[in-house]
Write a structure and sequence with these properties.
Helix content is 54%, strand content 7%. By secondary structure, it is mostly helical. It has a three-stranded parallel sheet with strand order 1-2-3. The protein has a two-stranded parallel sheet with strand order 4-5. α8 packs across α9. The longest helix has 30 residues. It is elongated, with a radius of gyration of 22 Å. The protein starts with a strand and ends with a helix.
Length: 329
């Protein structure tokens, strides 16, 4: 029986951290046993905000495929590819850009939000405004049935659905299906300072970090600011370390909560316990990632092989789209 197609991607903007893993990659690994999965490195999307400085783009691309493999994505189960190695994405983006109303792009939730957040960058570019068209091309080039998203990302997927409907209506040809959201239960992991884990905040624990760096980061994490002495009653629900325990020590959470609230365990001891659990999960992935990066040629070949598979499917879709538009010979 033909499996439904799932597609998602990640931008090569730096090392994958624990927040990325529990927010998306953890679910991707599970999905590849149920669906025909296509996971890509979105290097063209990285240019929407990073077009002015691309010196690390190749290095980040190679490290991202190493992260993909280290966490459990399997090129035998999923198509792992590089966006820029599949030119059909750009061609389909061009067709969508020709018929997508400007007002649709301007109302995209991320558009104004990122302009406000990234004030140090000049984002008044056509590429940044039009990236939803490229995102739609990424998804629709493979006629994806599902896109794994959180609830906050549904408006973005709805725009892709609108672009597909408009194309089919304008050219009176049902080329594109309307992809559905595959709502995934993401685990939210705070950064070491209590804020959202983000590279821009410098509060991440990444798979590139060596075990000693990880230990130090956990030991420096923000805890309950009102707790001065070990015997003071703690408030675990506002503590970043306890948030880590929820994920890395699920069987011990109730006991840790009780000890914290009862002033029976100090923050230093709690952090040591947390660091050990994080290391138990993190170290094998770090070591696998480190080993993979010793052979970059092999990683490049995996990307090339996956991109060849992606081009084959995208080319079939593109032929249908060109025929519908009646463009070319």
């Amino acid at each position: 029986m033909t499996r439904k197609i799932v597609l998602s991607g990640a931008r090569p903007t730096g090392d994958v951290h624990l927040g990325n893993y529990f927010g998306a990659l953890h679910n991707w690994v599970k999905l590849q046993d149920q669906y025909d999965c296509h996971f890509f490195i979105a290097d063209w999307h990285a240019l929407t905000t990073g077009y002015a400085d691309t010196h690390a783009l190749h290095e980040h691309t190679i490290s991202l495929i190493a992260d993909f493999l280290a966490v459990g994505l399997d090129p035998e189960k999923s198509v792992l590819f590089l966006q820029s190695e599949v030119p059909q994405h750009a061609e389909l983006f061009l067709l969508f850009a020709m018929n997508t109303p400007l007002s649709w792009l301007e109302r995209c939730p991320t558009y104004k939000d990122q302009i406000n957040q990234l004030k140090e960058k000049d984002l008044t570019t056509y590429g940044f405004l039009g990236y939803p068209c490229l995102q739609a091309a990424d998804i629709l080039a493979y006629k994806a049935d599902f896109v794994p998203v959180g609830e906050d990302q549904i408006p973005h997927l709805e725009l892709t659905r609108e672009i597909a409907r408009r194309f089919n209506h304008l050219y009176q040809s049902p080329v594109f299906p309307e992809p559905q959201p595959l709502l995934t239960a993401a685990k939210v992991l705070p950064g070491t300072d209590g804020r959202k884990m983000s590279k821009s905040y410098g509060n991440t624990i990444s798979f590139a970090d060596d075990p000693e760096t990880v230990r130090q980061k956990v030991m420096n994490m923000v805890t309950d600011p009102a707790r001065i002495r070990k015997t003071d009653p703690g408030h675990p629900d506002i503590c970043s370390v306890f948030a880590f325990h929820k994920i890395f020590s699920p069987d011990e959470v109730d006991s840790i909560r009780s000890q914290c609230e009862g002033g029976q365990i100090g923050c230093v001891a709690c952090k040591k316990q947390c660091a050990a659990k994080v290391a138990e999960f993190h170290t094998p992935i770090h070591e696998k990632r480190t080993g993979l990066l010793q052979d970059p040629d092999h990683l490049v070949q995996i990307i090339k092989d996956g991109s060849a598979k992606a081009r084959e499917l995208a080319a079939r879709t593109m032929a249908e789209a060109r025929a519908a538009v009646r463009i070319g010979l």
